[in-house]
Amino acid sequence: MAYVPGYRHDLFVSYAHGDDREWISLFVARLQPALKQRLGVPAEVWIDDDSLRASRDFSGEIPDGVRSSAVFLLLASPTYIRSRYCVEEESRTFAATLPERLARFSAEGFARERFAFRCPIVPTDNNEHWSLFPGLTDIAFCDDSDTFAIGSAPFETSFRRLVGEIVGLLSRMRNHSTSVFLYPSTPSEDIAPAHAALAAELSAHSYRVLPDRQVNLAGQLRDASMAVFLLGAKYDEAADNLVDIASTGETPWVAWCAPSVEEHAGPEQAGFSLHVEQLDSPRKTWLQAGITAAKLKEEVLALLRPDQRALPEAQGKPRVYLVYNARDRADVKNAGLIMHHFRKEVHFDYPDDPAQHTVRLTRSDGVLLIWGSAEEEWCSREFSEMVQTSRRAGTQGLCVFDPQEAKRATVRAIRDGFRDVFVGEQYGRFDPAHLLPFFTPIVRRQEPQP
């Protein structure tokens, strides 16, 4: 799990395969433990190797790794700037994600952030590598003549600076994420599956899960935007004290009683569980043992109400919100195809930040729901929310990729029941022309009137 919530990787290391691979391998071998020492947990570092380059998914896996990484590390060299793949598929793919990152990390301290570090490892004539991420200051691992040897004094100076700046940025990004206090952090066997599923879901939706250290639990609880207590069969005196704090605080909190409480709890835990159920606290949500772990995730996410932060400026373009199942890699790619083909005319938002979901539904110039391989239940739920929340003239649409026979009845029902919603289907190779009836009216409404 990445240190920064909402990403699969903390750091993407971008380098040219024609450069000194032994040096790069030693560099990364030094970098990973140094980051772990400073962060307290391992950082998820993405670096491709020859086995991946030879794989059949190479053309998609690396750009996907770029987009799903919190921070980009560019090891610049003459070989790098001559590599179409390094420049186009890695550097520029990451640069294209900058508007979405700035939308998510909207605090003043991120206003000029590029979420990238540029480290020359071989001298480049005329400093042409500066055109990759303009505005960054080089952290050089070379001088005018050669690359710094691993362990040399110049190397160590640059290395310490780089580690410090990466750690500082990752920490600021993590701390900017909305936090949820999920207790206990080391669950017993009877509640471990529910804890693991909920923690993974929260992280995937960009929430920071607390406690993330074993001290000052009360302080971490008070800092969180919500608390969730999982009550198992074993009594925990610390949980008793923390519930007292939550019950008198100003933030919402949830208590879920596992089935094991009814079946195996001793008198202390049975009494504590009953006390929590009967506790008069206006911000409490009590979930009975009959609530499944899957339903628990839904209840918690539903209670994490999105804030109404203003959307960033879209630089004169109409704003379209693409809604898709971010856990389905095929649909992520489908969304990427649409974004790529209409990127010059439209500014796209997508569900990278749950705190922005409702505001994007209500304030976008268009909302397009993408349904590919996701389950029909998911599509039905998202379509219902889209229709109820985002009714604006001619701005709603459904794009179905390669619909199977079982889906066609659903598509027909939507066409018949929602005639003001655009419905488009894509078979085989993606054809952006099929989506022009959705995008053209949105773009034209933004054009200056004579």
Poorly predicted segments: 51-57, 306-311
Q: What can be said about the biggest beta sheet?
A: 5 strands, parallel
- Kindly give the count of domains: 3
Distance between the termini: 53 Å
Q: Strand tally, please?
A: 14
How would you describe the oligomerization state of the chains in this entry? Answer: single chain
Per CATH, the architecture of the largest domain is 3-Layer(aba) Sandwich
The proportion of residues in beta strands is 15-25%
The CATH topology of the largest domain comes to Rossmann fold
Overall average pLDDT: 87
What does the radius of gyration come to?
A: 25 Å
What is the SS-derived class? alpha/beta
Entry keywords:
450 residues, alpha/beta, Rossmann fold, 3 domains, five-stranded parallel β-sheet, 18 helices, 14 strands, 44% helix
Summarize the structure.
With 450 residues, the chain is an alpha/beta fold. It has helices at residues 21-39, 50-53, 58-67, 78-81, 84-95, 98-104, 153-176, 192-204, 217-223, 237-247, 259-264, 267-278, 293-303, 329-342, 357-363, 376-389, 405-417, 436-446, and strands at 9-14, 45-46, 69-76, 116-120, 179-183, 208-210, 226-231, 253-257, 284-287, 319-323, 347-349, 366-371, 396-401, 422-426.
